[in-house]
Amino acid sequence: MDKPYDLEERTFLFAKECRLYIQKLPKTISNIEDGKQLIRSSGSVGANYIEANEKLGEKDLSFRLKIARKEAKESKYWLQLLQELNPEFIFLSENLIYEVEELRKILSTIISKTS
Asked: pLDDT under 50 in the chain at which residues?
């Protein structure tokens, strides 16, 4: 599957795929709580990127991009934890972990070029 070039769309699709992944997991207490955290952080990647595009200044741009990158790192953490506890869904989680790492790298490149 080709990834969208538009980063707003790509971050939206990542957040959506995380939600679909969570829906497939068994409803254990840890999956529910970790899933809530993943839902928050995955949605925050795109939300902060959109806010960065509507910057109030260069400092605001850098700040929002760094938050988006931080949320991508957090999303990876929750995905890895969920993967460890749900190995039967490894194919789904591996794809998401790969995508969030790609998003983190893209955000890091944007940050370094705008600083």
From this structure: 1
